[in-house]
Specification:
With 371 residues, this protein is mostly beta strands. It has a single domain, classed as TolB, C-terminal domain (Neuraminidase, 6 Propeller). Helix content is 6%, strand content 39%. β15 and β16 form a beta hairpin.
Amino acid sequence: MKWLQTLTLSFICSITFSVHADITGDKDLNIEKVASGLSIPWGMAVLPDNQLLVTQRDETLSRVDMKNGETTQISGLPDDIRVDGQGGLFDIRLAPDYQDNGWIYLSYNKDVDGQGATTLARARIEADQLVDWQDLIVTQSRTGNNVHFGGRIAFDGQGHVFLSLGDRGERDNAQNLRNHAGSILRLNLDGSVPEDNPFVGQDKALPEIWSYGHRNVQGLFYNTETGLLWAQEHGPRGGDEINLVQPGNNYGWPEISYGKEYWAPMPVGEEKKEGMEQPVKMYDPSIAPSGLIQYQGDLFKTWKGKLLSGAMKLQHLNIVTLNDNNEAVDEKRLLRSLNSRIRSVVEAPDGAVLVGTDAGVIYRITPATKP
């Protein structure tokens, strides 16, 4: 029986090594298709029963059974969702106290007098229908453009919710504190304004603003263990950024940028300016990042604390390693084998990584175990 014990130990060690070893390529991953046939899966949220809520930009909310891939449409969305250009139904997140009250937070492009305004709302689900819908804030961000809506949601676990907004295609908005465009907002969970927001009481600034100078934040994640808010945003031609967001800070767009104009190889603004924050990481050429988490689980041991995001233009899962000073020191690019724009990324309760692609497919990613 000694040979059997040796074989068993060897098998266990090989599995342990595989799970704990670094991931160098798609060969080191199990890539399981969970669901297909969706439209653009903009946001995802895992329910306590391990089913998945998926928002789709075309004004659709679905619940996906991750065991068999069956999808059920959830009714009750408002009639004034404006689906046009980059606008439509955006992100979805369960409230931190979801088990107590059932609130689900959603963001969307609300039609206001023929223009779109990024809006944060909440509702509950009863019998496959949204009920108790509440618009918490209809932002002051309307323009005639159908681009750069932002729309990502994050919670700090201390009674606050964050909402990102893009500049709505008008660059100067991002430096104008009299509107919400080009900003990250911080609200109480009921939509009211926290008294300790950085611009409360200032005549020339809206009190919901937490940070500004953003072009189009498409990834937002609050780490409740470290108390840090991470954001990633699209630059123009080059100059995508990951930023560590602090209250009241100016992240520079369009005064500073590492990107260039679309119409000519000319820089947009300067690279640095006093009083404006530098990114933790910059991408040139652009990867078009979307969805962002800082991995917290134990399933991928070597990913703990790393930033994971989708890349739409360059079609991969982007993994950034940070040092103890929150500086980006390494990067890996995985899931290129999918050949698809990765729009959304979330971490499941068991540590698996769920990604949604613009091809309408949801994948569950776990480490490969190779005895």
